[in-house]
Structures are given as C-alpha cells and as structure tokens.
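@channel sequence for tomorrow's demo:
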Amino acid sequence: LGRIMRPDDANVAGNVHGGTILKMIEEAGAIISTRHCNSQGGEPCVAALARVERTDFLSPVCIGEVANVSAEITYTSRHSVEVQVNVMSENILTGAKKVTNKATLWYVPLSLKNVNKVLEVPPIQYARKEQEDEGKKRYEEQKLDRLETKQRNGDLIFPVINPEPHTVGYSQSSLIHLVGPSDCTLLGFVHGGVTMKLMDEVAGIVAARHCKTNIVTASVDAINFHEKIKKGSVITISGRMTFTSNKSMEIEVFVDADPFVDESRERYRAVSAFFTYVSLSKEGKPLPVPQLLTETEDEKRRFEEGKGRYLQTKAKRQAQMQQAAQQ
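structure tokens (generated this afternoon):
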C-alpha cells in the first residue's frame, strides 16, 4: 500500500500528519487480515480492528515523499489476527528510503451476515515453534491489558472555568464528529483508521495548547477498540494531559459514541488510548516541555500512572538498544 504525500496531508510543522500515517497503517492491516480470514472459503467476513499496540514514529514523512506501507501476519489465535506493519518513506527525487513507523495491530473477523458474530481464523504456518510461543505470549498480554483498560474507562472530561496555564483543564480539548458513510466499512461501522486520525488531531490540540509551539506525534501507546461505532452516530473525541517529562507529553484520548439512530442504546465508551507528543522549535529541534500542574487527587494519580508508563517504556527502549549493540 503506498501513495505520494500531498500538501493536504501536512500538519502545522509541515510534515505528514501522524493521523494520516495511522490511517494508512490500519488500511494495510485490514486488507491483509480480511484477505487471510477469507482464504479458506467459509462464511464471508471483514476484519475489524480490535487493538493497536504501541506505535513509534521513528522519523517524519515529508510532503512529496511516497509512503509505502507493508504488512505481515505474525500470529493467529482462534478468533484474532496479529499484524506487523512497517512504513517506509521514499524520496522519489533522490531514491533515499527510511523506515518511519512500526506498529502491531490485532483484528477480529466479523461475519458479513451477522456483524455480532466473530468467526474463527484460519491458522498460519510458523517457521519455528518459538515464533508461535512468542506470539501466544503477546496475545495473552494484550488480552489482559484490554481487560484492565476497559475496567478503568468510566472517566469523563468536564469543562473548567478560567483554568490556569499548564493545568489539565487549560489544555483539555474535545471534538464532535457525525459518522457518515465515507467513514465506514462495508458493514456500516467506523473504520479504525478514521477514529485514530480524529484521536491524533485532538491529542495534537491538547499538546499545542500546553506548549504553544509546534508539536509532533512521537508514539501511540495501545489504542483499544472496546465497541463498534455505527454509521449515523455522533462521536465525541476528548483529550487531556496526564503526564509530562522534560521533553515529552502523554495525552489520554477517548471516544464516546451517541447512537442517535438507535434510541434504545445509551452513550458508551468506544475507544481509548494514550498518545505521546514532543515539542519542536521552528527549526525542528526538540524543546523543553512546560511541567504539567496537577490540582486534584485524580490528576495527581493519573500523573503518577503516566510516569510509570514513561519509565517502563524508557527502560524497554534502553534494553533493546543494549541488545542491538551486543548483536
């Protein structure tokens, strides 16, 4: 999957919008998953996005470059598919190429006849037994994390009157979107990539309000898709700052759906995630991030939880660098 990046794909810093890349990643994952799940005949289905693991933005994609997205199925359970996706940018004037993004996504096959029916996934053949064992371990870890995330998903964001700069209330933001036909799959539910792009836009607004500088997406920490969003629903995408280090910001984003076409259904939490942003100067150099001022006990608790995630990610990255150096 590939296309040239146009001016309307740009963010305010002049590079390709992180949400655009996330949308392309999801499209590639959906294509390969749907193709695999229909490879052995049986009941026709469409692969629906259930979760996006941590996604790192290794390098920006520039306007005029070609973004090439490649996807590979790395594990299958009875009812889910794990897909590894890489994004490579290519300067078509010089031929220079670089890897810009790596992501892991999980899909489930939904029947075209009954969207509430999850079908079985054809198994893949592994080159080594260790690959299957490692995949199963990743599957169990993401399954547990999805359960924990769903249990803490009752939070709401309320407006704050005259908030002080650099507080949670000062930068928190919301966006309201009516789900139309162009946002949806064949089954009439929102594309995961559309949702991710909207979430990235809200997270970017929160980060920009906090810093008052250019900002870019650095990573996305596990987007969980808890429930499907139907065509005709009104969705509210809300974001708030949870943690700041010296050079990065963590923003919690969640999506609530109001299914107006189904009056029997109340508003519900559909998606949740944490985005990490960095502040940049006009020359594209990293800038220090203003410290987040926490006021309530909940804000202090979320700050400490964010700090834990930050330190865990930092330790994991250092371990990977040491392992690479030894090889």
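heads up for whoever presents: DSSP finds five helices and eleven strands in the chain.
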